[in-house]
Amino acid sequence: MKAKIALITGGSRGLGKSAALRLAEKGHDVIITYHTQKEMADEVVKEIESGGSMATALKYDSGDFDSLSDFVKQVEHTLSQKWNTDKFDFLINNAGIGATIPFDKVTENDFDRFMNIHFKSVFFLCQRILPFMNNNGRIINLSTGTTRFANPGYSVYASMKGAIEVFTKYLAKEVGPRGITVNVLAPGPIETDFNNAAIRNAPPERRAGMIANTALGRLGNADDIGKIIAFLCSEDSEWINGQRIEASGGINL
Fold it and tell me: Per the residue annotation, which of 34, 60, 157, 170 is the catalytic one?
C-alpha cells in the first residue's frame, strides 16, 4: 500500500501527537504543526521516522489569521520538496486552546481569540488547502462533548465547536463529489495537558464525579482519540460522512 500523507494541526503533544503516531503505524506519512513546542514536535517527527514513515513539523499559529496564506504556501513547498508531490490525503484540524471562563467574565478579546483559533482558521484552512488534497481524502474536525452537555465556563469554547459541527455537515455536502469525507470527532474528558491539564489535575472529587458519570468507568486518554482518528482515515470508514462522532466512554448518558 502506498503511503498517504496526513496534515495534523497541533501535533506536538496530546491528541494530535497520538493521531500522528497511530497514522504512522498504519504506514502513512505525516506533517504536524506546532505553535511554540518545536522541540516536542521534533521528537514526534523522530519517533515517526524511527518507525519507517516520513514526517516533518511546520510552525503554525492558528490564532494569527494573517499567517494562513504563508502557511498554506509552506505546506505546498514541503509537499514538493520532501514528497515530490503537490497533494496530500488527510486533514485533521486539531489545534486549539482551552480556558474555563465564566460567561460574565468573557471579554471581546477572549471571544475573538477562540473564534479565530477554533472556527475561523479551520473554516479558511479547509477552503485554501482543498486544492492540495487528493480526491477520496478525509477531513476530521475536532470538537468537544460540551456541545452536547453544558459545563460552566465553557460557553465560548463550546459555542465555537458547535459552529464547527454545523460547518462539518456543510463541508461534507460540498466536497462529497470529490469523494472526500468530512466528520467531526467530539472527545469527552481526556487526560492531557489541554487547558492547563484541567482534567488530569482536577480535584479528586471532580475526577470521581466524571468517572461516575461515564459508562465505561474511567477518564479518556490521548490514544483513545488517536486510534479513532486513524480509523476515520482508513478505507474502512469511507461510508461515514458528515457525522458528529462522540468519543467519551459514554459520559452523561
Answer: 157
What is the chain's percent helix, strand, coil content, to nearest 5? 50, 20, 30
Element housing 112 (H / E)? helix 108-115
CB neighbour list of residue 1: distance below 8 Å, 6 or more residues apart = 27
Summarised one tens digit per residue, pLDDT across range 20-39 is 999 999 999 999 999 999 99
Query: What domains lie within the chain, and their CATH numbers?
Result: 5-190+221-247 (3.40.50.720)
Active site residue 157: yes
From 5, 128, 106, select the one nearest 60 (Cα to Cα).
Answer: 128
CA 27 to chain centre: 20
pLDDT tens for each residue of 145-184: 999 999 999 999 999 999 999 999 999 999 999 999 999 9
pTM: 0.94
| Cell, residue 125 | 484552512
Phi, psi of 39 (to 5 degrees): -65, -40
Q: Are strands 133-142 and 88-93 parallel, antiparallel or unpaired?
A: parallel
DSSP 8-state code for residue 103: G
**Do 63 and 116 meet the contact criterion of CB atoms below 8 Å apart?**
yes
